[in-house]
Design goal:
Blueprint (H helix, E strand, L loop, with lengths): L5 H14 L3 H17 L3 H17 L3 H18 L2 H17 L3 H17 L5 H17 L3 H16 L4 H18 L1
Helix pairs in contact: 1-2, 1-3, 2-3, 3-4, 4-5, 5-6, 5-7, 6-7, 7-8, 8-9
Length: 183
């Protein structure tokens, strides 16, 4: 078995603290992970630690801080050439921009995420479905019901193809409700 890197171990511990509601501990652990990754010149590890700090900021409603950390992570994933991590970070950024009603920024981020996933034949189905869901929400927010229907159908198809029915049940209900509302 391969041992996780020190950075990954710190991220995992931080994620556990976040799940347990210990935001301060999570921030500290993610900060240590960032420092460790910088010391090790691990661009991808540093990017993942930054997306984790962005998630904490998002949890607490500080979207400006979350977007700052997320954009820094995006730059690191680009520099590292890690397309899959970049796609995930772009999707999360797109959702943050959408929450702030910065539709143009959300559109750019989500379009690139979807393009990266389309270019990756081994892209995780859940990640693709989540990005498609975000694009559907963006189309709704932009007042484009036709495009929203297309994205919701695609997201629903993606979720339905996944093996873990319990994990995606809520996503399927949401897609069905949104499609019904769009007519």
């Amino acid at each position: 078995m391969i041992e996780p890197s020190r950075c990954q171990s710190l991220i995992d511990q931080g994620q556990a603290a976040r799940r347990d509601g210990r935001a301060d501990d999570a921030r500290r652990l993610f900060g240590e992970a960032i420092a460790t990754a910088r010391t090790d010149s691990d661009l991808t590890g540093q990017g993942h630690a930054l997306t984790a700090t962005a998630a904490i900021a998002r949890d607490t409603g500080n979207l400006d801080w979350a977007i700052h950390d997320q954009q820094e992570a995006i730059a690191l994933f680009r520099k590292a050439g890690d397309g899959r991590s970049l796609a995930g970070a772009l999707r999360e950024a797109g959702e943050m921009f959408l929450a702030q009603r910065h539709l143009a920024h959300a559109s750019v981020a989500l379009r690139e995420a979807l393009d990266l996933y389309a270019a990756d034949p081994d892209a995780p189905g859940l990640a693709v479905a989540d990005a498609t869901r975000a694009a559907a929400l963006l189309a709704e927010a932009a007042g484009d019901p036709g495009q929203a229907r297309i994205f919701w159908r695609d997201a629903r198809t993606g979720y339905a193809a996944l093996d873990d029915a319990d994990e995606v049940a809520e996503a399927l209900r949401e897609a069905d409700a949104r499609l019904a509302a769009l007519g």
